[in-house]
Automatic annotation (TrEMBL):
GO MF annotation list: DNA binding; metal ion binding
Species the sequence originates in: Veillonella seminalis ACS-216-V-Col6b
Coiled coil: none
GO biological process: negative regulation of DNA-templated transcription
Name the record gives this protein: Copper-sensing transcriptional repressor CsoR
CDD domains in alphabetical order: CsoR-like_DUF156
Amino acid sequence: MLTDMEMEKLSRRLRRIKGQVEGIEKMIDDHRYCVEVLQQIGAVRAALYQVGLLMLESHSRSCVVDAIKKGKEDDAITELMGVYKSLHK
């Protein structure tokens, strides 16, 4: 479960990402150079990846730890690895 501080940090990052995506849309509308647009797309992907890592860390520290304490380590690790793999597609 996310703490209030983690929630605020993620919200700030997501608002920044939203602004970046809107900026990309404007760049396309303005017929900006393709490489510039692609660089911004890369920046957004990297920013989203960081959000994913923050979520993964929070999940690991709370939900996974709780599952292990309850003797459900196999399920927790299987789920965790599935999420990790999805972040790296």
